[in-house]
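Justification of resources, computational component.

The compute hours requested in this renewal are based largely on the per-chain cost of generating structure records like the one below. Each record pairs the submitted sequence with a full structure-token output. That output is archived, and it is also reused by downstream analysis tasks.
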Amino acid sequence: MDHLTNHILTFLREIGISYSLEPINTETFLPGLKLRAGTLIIDVEKLLYPGDILHEAGHLACMPPAIRNEMSGNLENGDLHNGGELMAIGWSYAACMYLGIETAVVFHEHGYKNASESIIGNFSEGRFIGVPLLQWLGMTYDENQAKIHGLNPYPAMQKWLCTKRPE
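The structure output for this chain reads:
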């Protein structure tokens, strides 16, 4: 396993994202990755892009525990997981910044339906994707709310895991 993958896995362990390194013998949405009952299953032999680990971890991190613990297989289309996609993009960008990883590691040219360059451009110009939803969950604050609370704004995270269903 390479240094980058180890760095990412250490981070996941520290923040409480459950993962397991094991072979995957079925077809998956992303090579070498799948979700099983709230655990990220990683087949390091089939994994093509280590940054995909962070993005998939973001899907788990941004859901309340009751939902997170039931997430398995491919995520269904619908408001919950469509919003989750936006949050996972924002969360994984914040994770890149925190870990000192180039954004192109997560937003690589082979993912995001050929929009990775646009996503990187948006973030580099301060147009942050998913932040209102992450703020709604109490995981981060935009600049205005951060000032009110005396905290650092996004991409600084107040919590890496959603801890409850918002009211």
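The chain has a mean pLDDT of 91. The chain has one domain: 3-128.
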